[in-house]
Specification:
Number of strands: 0
Radius of gyration: 19 Å
Helix content: over 70%
Number of helices: 3
Shape: elongated
Largest sheet: none
Order of helices and strands: HHH
Length: 99
């Protein structure tokens, strides 16, 4: 997702950059997460309780990671984009960077 953000033009507005970023990266993140969830949750069908527990928790971890990537990480990239557009420092957002 960060690689697709870096491929966008810094001169474009942040919503357009986010749209391009999600259009490129969200499809592959979604497909990968769905296949990982399904492959882990198939392990629930085994007769071994330890494998069942591992499969449930691993599938839940993939769901949590997917939600984190789509909502939190995307929001953090958008905030960084707005600060980049305002020519602010990357660590100290309140101070303007000197050109």
């Amino acid at each position: 997702m960060l690689a697709s953000w870096r491929r966008t033009s810094p001169h474009d507005p942040v919503p357009k950059r986010m749209a391009e970023c999600y259009a490129e990266a969200a499809v592959s993140i979604t497909i990968t997460s769905i296949t990982d969830m399904l492959s882990f949750w198939v392990g629930v069908l085994t007769p071994f309780p330890c494998v069942q527990i591992f499969s449930v928790y691993s599938g839940a971890a993939v769901v949590a990671t997917y939600i984190w990537h789509i909502f939190f990480f995307g929001g953090a990239i958008a905030l960084s984009g707005y600060h980049e557009a305002d020519n602010r420092h990357s660590l100290i957002w309140c101070k303007q960077a000197t050109p």
